[in-house]
Amino acid sequence: MTGDPLFDEMFGTDGVTRAAYAEFADWFGSEDPSRLRAKAREAEEAFRVTGITFNVYGDPDAGERLIPFDIIPRIIAAREWAKLSKGIEQRVRALNAFLHDIYHRQEIVRAGILPVEMIARNDAFLPEMIGVDPAGDIYTHIVGIDLVRTGPDQFYVLEDNARTPSGVSYMLENRETMLHTFPELFSRNRVQRVSRYPQSLHRSLSACAPKACDGTPTVAVLTPGIHNSAYYEHSFLADQMGAELVEGHDLRVVDGRVAMRTTRGYKPIDVIYRRVDDDYLDPLTFNRDSMLGVPGIFDVYRAGGITIANAPGTGVSDDKAIYSYMPEIVRFYTGEKAKLENVPTYRCSEPDALAYVLDNLSDLVVKEVHGSGGYGMLIGPTATKKDIAAFRKKLEAKPGNYIAQPTLSLSTVPIFAKKGLAPRHVDLRPFVLVSPNGIEITPGGLTRVALKKGSLVVNSSQGGGTKDTWVLEED
Amino acid sequence: MLGKTAGGIYWMFRYLERIENIARLVETGQRIALTQAEGADGEWTSILTTAGVRTAYEAQNEEVTGDAVIDFLLRSEDNPSSVMCCAANARTNARTVRTGLTREVWEAVNECWMTLRDLLARRVTTRDLPHVLTTIRTRSAFVRGSLHGTMLRNDIYDFARIGTFIERADATARLLDVKYFVLLPSISGVGSRLDNTQWEIILRAVSAEGPFRLVHGNQRGASAIAEFLILDGRMPRSLAFCYKKIGDNLDYLHRDYGIRLPSHDHSDAICHRLQQLSIQDVFEEGLHQFLQDFMGRNAALGQQIEQDYRFIK
């Protein structure tokens, strides 16, 4: 895969502007760069005032930081999106079916498709969830599927986020900022709306109310608190949905229901959109030292007194070792070939694969099975000999902790750099909502962009930025 | 609404009110220092007492100087009532209760904090002081303006107002108590130079010179000033005014929730007393005793509200 010419989503491989970008390129060419620069500063100021920040873990001095925003949109044609969304829908359906199966009869293991140790030795597998039937049989209500692109028609799934995918507030605020800063662009281009997401989320969560709910479901967002890196997003979503934003100490179990302390006494909650990890959810069932959760919530959940979204234990479906089985998982539950491709993945737990990986470290990306945020990984082609030697030791000590993938030549989208347009690598996280009424995918998603030239790391904790993502209406 | 949200809103507005009160005190102190040859240092001490931070100041500083006091009141991290700490606390509370605020109110309080953080990043020079103090007041006014202009008149709004007026009543009572000796009719020789200065301090510190002149002309009697700031229901920083507002907002909550709670009785009792008393009664009771008693009841009401509306577990 290396060696191919880099695919730029605006200029292709041959420098000719691609159709989806035609209107934009026309506008951009007629703009005065100094006005654009002033506008870009204005956009950044808008983010500062709105307070869209994230906190960096382990860096107390950093406090809250802004994620850099780039004003050049990433544009996807209607036809491309239609194809992508079919693949995403299929994958999300399979993820939910897989989770149901894992916590019930484990047919996929019985059929010999998934080795039993993939479940049994998986820290994210929660034995407490065995036999539990979540409302509407939905486990992962809110999903983020990370995609990368290498050519005009070549997309790969890089990662499934079935626990608590974050970033949707950036998708929404990026669009608001673009509408505010460059209104004229939206009269020249017909861009599909994203602004309905909070209402869709509320509707989708309400549709999963537990059997104990009578009347209109009460929805709340559970946050670990204002020091959490995604706190802005938690408060943003609660605000936009018109739901309460609660912390563990606002809640307790009253008469078999989880209830929140209001100015008029305790009031039951029907659906809780939790942004707290499984481990911290219930000190009585999981981590005993957790101050963030609600003692007894899991018993209420099991008895149908509350819906927890996403369900506890969904993490078993999205770690990087399970990822490597996704093509088989999709086929097993949908009876179809996966419409979206996986990046070829070597499971270092398997001796042959490990041998290959050890021989080819300088060409591969090696990741921790449970890692996230771009930490703890080796990017072979850019690593020093010393890095590779150090990583080799870690890999040999615990091969089961790692998977390896070839380095893809990720597509680029231009950013507005000091000297004008400059190509930078991007990925895409579309957001998916699942309810008994169906699967809803917001057109677009969050585009993350590596701001450093040549860098493949798009994570915001490591200096990545974001872009507004447009899906054009059909012609 | 969540008890935590009610508490967050209440404290957010107490801190915003405190910012303004501190800015006024600094302004008053600075004016005295610039216009009076003597006695300015003593005035800074009484300003520290009025702000309720004298002990904290003395723990950090050997002597009382204008520069050190100004820095302590505006910027010190060791002073939980400094403008910078209050602005940060107001914003932290606003973040906690973000879902209870309109976007305008949130942005106003966030900008207030960002502006003050930059402005107060280093020591404020005498030359910059007027600009800094004006900015503090304007930023705080923006928050109040967006509260009035955009927030629904519901329980959230009631808690915002109650927090504002509990804080304000405390500040006015404290100011009067620190100066009670110059307001005693028996001691003050009417028209003496010292008294004129002291009265000016009192009126300036509550932005009341203009309003006072409108009501009382140029006659500055001690009891007229005391009456104006304690009992005059038209004066927005008087104790009577604050309690009229607290009573109104507690009444709205009573009607809205359909429950009468201990805090309602508590507030009614204070309101009633302020309506019944004349300034002569106050002086007969003893101004100092009256103010001490008032501050105690005011603080107790704050705690009762906290309990009645479940701010904390």
What does this structure look like?
- The complex is a heterodimer of chains A (475) and B (313).
- By secondary structure, chain A is of the alpha+beta class.
- Chain A is 31% helix and 24% strand.
- Among the domains of chain A are: 1-125 and 135-191 and 419-475, no CATH class; 344-407, Dna Ligase, domain 1.
- In chain A, a hairpin with a 2-residue loop joins β20 and β21 (438-441).
- Chain A is globular, with a radius of gyration of 23 Å.
- The relative contact order of chain A is 0.18.
- Chain B has 313 residues and is an all-alpha fold.
- Helix content of chain B is 75%, strand content 0%.
- Chain B has helices at residues 3-35, 40-50, 54-60, 66-74, 83-96, 103-119, 129-150, 155-178, 180-183, 193-205, 209-216, 222-230, 239-257, 262-276, 279-285, 287-308.
- The longest helix of chain B is centred in the first third of the chain and has 33 residues, at 3-35.
- The model of chain B has no long low-confidence stretch (mean pLDDT 92).
- The interface between A and B is medium-sized, with 23 and 23 residues.
- Chain A: InterPro entries: ATP-dep_Glu-Cys_Ligase-2, CP_ATPgrasp_2, UCP005522.
- Chain A: It holds the Pfam family CP_ATPgrasp_2.
- Chain A: Residues 73-450 form the Circularly permuted ATP-grasp type domain.
- Chain A: It comes from Jannaschia pagri.
The SS-based structural class of chain A is alpha+beta
Strand element count of chain A? 23
Q: What is the CA–CA distance across the termini of chain A? A: 33 Å
Number of helical regions of chain B: 16
The overall pLDDT average of chain A reads 92
Give the CA-based shape of chain B. globular
Task: Determine Rg of chain A (CA atoms, Å).
Answer: 23 Å
